[in-house]
Amino acid sequence: MRFQVVDLSKKKPDGSYLFKDVSISLREREIITITGPSGVGKTTLLKCIAELVVFEEGKLYLDDKSPEQYDIPLWRTRVMYVPQRPVIMPGTPFAFHEKIRSYAALKKNRSAHEDPIEISARWGINEELWHSDWNRLSGGEMQRIMLALALSCKPDVLLLDEPTSALDSETCFLVEESLKEYACIWVTHDREQERRVAHKTLRLEKQDNGLDNRGGEAIINI
């Protein structure tokens, strides 16, 4: 597996750049963490890579094929975005799991699905929580269930927006060990977590000197 983000740029409504010329290269079971101050575009960058937000410049490739060559719905199952705070939905996590299994794009994915209930059990989620209403779950329970749903689809790349922010340290370590088996682009504000999981780090910096409108500048450390 080879994943590339090439010179990706996103503009703000005023025409200035939120970030500009971000490039990332990722291989199987490699993790790149993204850090930077609030407002620099970390979450937006993940959504652009997932083709959930329109960007003005740049290219995306998975195994040398663009999102359009896969078709966008299939791309989103193979390059999968997991938000920090899942939207509270009606019904139960199990009903949602049954619904997403029926999506045509997931059926096209060559990988067999895993059982998300078994995945989440490794992180302390009891099976009965899958049959509880979403609005009865804690933030940490929702995070783990959404991660388990994502992993069950066996994506090529996980786009993770602070995926362990609501977890205690012991559970956080368990989740981190599971995620190390995947290729991840991972937003974190936790420097210790970054040291534990990252093969490379990318920091987005604001450009506030008034001399240009480049917006966020990407700095990659290996």
TrEMBL record:
Stored SMART domains: AAA
The keyword tRNA processing appears for this protein: no
Extent of the signal sequence: none
The entry's keywords: ATP-binding, Nucleotide-binding
GO MF annotation: an example: ATP hydrolysis activity
All copies of domain ABC transporter, residue ranges: 3-222
Pfam families named among the record's database cross-references: ABC_tran
Gene3D superfamilies noted in UniProt: P-loop containing nucleotide triphosphate hydrolases (3.40.50.300)
Name of the protein described by the UniProt record: 5849_t:CDS:1
Taxonomic lineage from the root: Eukaryota, Fungi, Fungi incertae sedis, Mucoromycota, Glomeromycotina
